[in-house]
Amino acid sequence: MIRYKKDTDHIVTLTLDMSGRSINLINHEIAEAFIPVIEHLKREKSRGLLRGVIITSAKKSFLAGGELEYLYQAREPEEIFRFAEKLKGILRDLERPGIPVVAALNGAALGAGFELALACHYRIALSGPRAWLGFPEVQYGLIPGSGGIVRLMWLMGVEKAWPILSSGRRYTPQEALQAGLVDELADTQREMLDKARSWLLRNREGRRPWDRSGGAIPGGTAREHGVAAVIRQLATRLASRTHNNFPALQAILNILAEGSRVDFDTASRIESRYYTGLLCSQASKNMIKAFWFDYNFIKEGGNRPKGFGKFRPRRVGIIGAGRMGSGIALACLNHGLSVVLKDVSKPIADRGREYVRQRLEEWAAEGRKTETEREDMLNRIQTTESSRDFEECDLVIEAVFENRMVKQKVMREAEEFMDDYALFASNTVSIPITKLAEGSLRPENFVGLHFFPPAEEVPLVEIVRGARTSDETVARAFDFVRAIRKTPIVVKDDWGFFAARVQNTYILEGITMLQEGYPPALIENLGRQAGMPFGALALADSLGLNMVLRYENQAAEHYGAKYVQHPAVGVLKAMLEELQRPGQQKRAGFYDYEAGGASRLWPGLAEHFPVSVEDFDRQELENRFLFAQVLEAVWCMQEKVIHSVAAANLGSIHGWGFPAFKGGVIQFMHDFGPEAFIRQCKDYESKFGQRFRAPRILPGLLGLK
Amino acid sequence: MAEAYIFDAVRTPLGRGGSEGALYEVKPIGLLLAVLEAIPRRCAIGPGDVEDLIIGCNAPVDGQGHDIARAALLYAGWGGATAGVQINRYDASGLEAAILAAMKVRSGWAQLVLAGGMESMSRAPGGSDGGPLTYDPEVMARAGYMAPGVAADLLATLEGFGREALDQYACQSQQRASHARDSGYFSRSIIPIYDQNGLLILGEDEQLRPDTTPEGLAQLPPAYEALGRQGYEEIALQQFPVLERIHYRHTTGNSSNPADGAALVLVGSREKGEALGLKARARIRAAATLSCGMALIQTGAVPAARKALQLAGMQPEDIGLWECQEPFAAVALHFQRELAAAEGAFNVNGGAIALGHPVGASGAILLGALLDEMERRDVAAGMAAVGASGGMGAAMVIERI
Fold it and tell me: What string of H, E and C letters represents the secondary structure of A636-699?
């Protein structure tokens, strides 16, 4: 578990090496193992037989965070609090004035793993591309609970600690050095240990700023006006951004504000109390479910056809240098792939490259990319007007105009030059892949890859399996999506696939409320306050009302005689036909669009859809928005459009921004309570119509009889 | 039950809040000292006659920290005779002090009390006392804390007060205040501030802008838009989701400015007044304090005024003169509309938009201004009403004897 080795300089190296695991992580086991080691170190020190300690790891990574399996199950506040305090006690023992300790970070140290590093007096990181450092806890609705927040605050001050803690960002060793998270870098394992040793020989005593008399938090505490004003501003921004739906972020800010006013150990205890509360919260359970269990299921190929070796794409061809094609290009470049970007002429293809260049400049300004990375990425994109340049590509993706003839034409041109083994993917949302494949030379190599705009940012990609798409092709498409670090979900070749179809129900519900006489601003505000990234009407405009109606028409076609017309259809037809307001593209939809990009709700709505509801039930309206999506997702599962709970949950969050704190469309029902959810559906069905009827598989899906 | 009477009311001139203000050089306790020392001079009473001094202060820290009332008494040499307490009901502090004094007198537990407020916003700017409601992120989130300027724009948006109406109100406040000053209406109660050598530092209100025009006001940019965009707008929409957006219409011109000043009101029982030979100028008929919630924080004067009227058994028509605190133009317009206060009887000598708003003192200044003007106009009954930060309000009905 912890290997102990002492050299002739009286320097002890502790090497973490948990048995039976490929990584080290923080759990009860390792905590127990540390206690006697620290006791022993203390004895050695008192006998003058210890100069210093190096902590490192025998695994590829240094130390991962807490054991999420344990954290997901933990429910007992007292036990959680006590364990948090116990871990803190161990780290505190390690750093208490006396024995100097160096963390030799030979690989990734995340979450609680990085908290151990922060409890050392000095940190040296081994440079490497996958040696991530930082605090990803907020992604799971959690916070560092082993003193990480308080130590970071003491090391760099409230203002600088906040973005590091609240973004969940992972840092490369180089970035970590710049941010002040580590003290030194090393290029080799040996150099790292030499540097650690030499630091120990130069520093006889380790003493943290908070253990020094007169030690102070850089920039001051929340007692001082400057810091107080910063905290106030952050609090306001947070409340407006999250609508109080992300308690973990709020807790971090609370701990910084309260913790800066008291001594280190008290602050540390305050941190444990917030940590305990969060770990018991449903929001964190939901997020651990989605971003750990569901994500791992997807990542480990839960829906990937089995038995095919890993596909490692290197060169990707993209047809169509518009926003979508350029976005896909950028996503590929960003993860080390080379891109051949083709359009009807080279100058038009160059516009795509220009888009990539501009976005990279923005990323550089945000600190997301360095100058060298930017140059390297731009060097990997080639623009062309000839399909001949696809010869070397492992995969070609078309992202041209949504027209079957055009798509088939560019496909045939490309296939002529492509390797027999290469994949061809179509990025379509409304043309059946099976139909498109009819024109293909190699339909078994043909697959749908549905990206979402902006493709460089949205993490979801739907893999659409046509009737003749081979299992191997699906597996390779899956591997490609993973190679660009996106979330692949495999969906059936059916109208709207999964994401667009489910998202459309949110839009339709909002439009229905308009028809019922609710004020349009209320519809938009409550949608966002329910946790959706955009109001339903704004989303309708951005997709185009034609598209919204088209999906619903496809549903009608699909269900035939069983179809019950959605109450939103009337409004859509009126907007499209009588009022000529088809959406954002024509600068006239539910909103008016000014030249500067600013938009305001169209005042004409008041005349055509007069407000008749004065009083409103906030909870009911927010529920309707979310229930509509949840039920559609269940229909998708029943109709085998999507094949796993994990894909539905993660697809909804990563695809169109279904509230992460609810854990996605299926987890939502567990959050709500399975029985209560079904009861509520019955109530809404009688009040609002058949669209709230629970699909047949629902009780089984929720583990009910 | 005993009745409470007002025998006198005084105030300092109001200095501009900030380091360019004339009273910036005067330490906060000096402002309170000036009005405190004026009372025996004007009323021929001694320190031993006054039992308590209640002082409202909004940022009781530093030079106005601790119990500033007690400190001022000791500083003035009244320490052996009179007790002192500092209170805080934000903007309504000065009026609240008078309400508490009246309560003491009406209960029979005190006979003569000095009440008022003070604020040196030059020395202790708003917020310098910290406080969880504005600085603790957890408390802010749970309380739905709203910045006052954004709340004022929210109010204007909800009530449909356009920029023009707000500017016009502000312009009128300036004209009325200048006219009142030039006509000497304020001089009766103003205690000039002198230095230790008897040299004058400030004799009149400093911030008035008699040359204000609607055209000039229209040029000013919105003052709270940046703050709203920082997040307060979205927080407001959580509470008022029927709104699409807030329209930013308040500027530095149609909002009140920070100021330095202090004010006192002498409150006592009929018997005590008679014994000391004091002339009762008004009777305190009723008073009330109420809350209005956080998002529209300055509208609390409305429910407080309604309750005070109800306690007094009066209708709005019975009020001959209204003084309503005007931190922002929309707040005064909203109050005027809600209480149906007649135009010619509402804030007739301007208000804080022209004079400035020394938060802790304003309520007492308002009460003194009401009393002076009721006498000048020979009006029987008047109302002083103040909305306070945090979503509260205080109101008092007084009538002349």
Answer: HHHCCCECCHHHHHHHHHHHHCCCHHHCCCCHHHHHHCHHHHHHHHHHHHHHHCHHHCCCCCHH
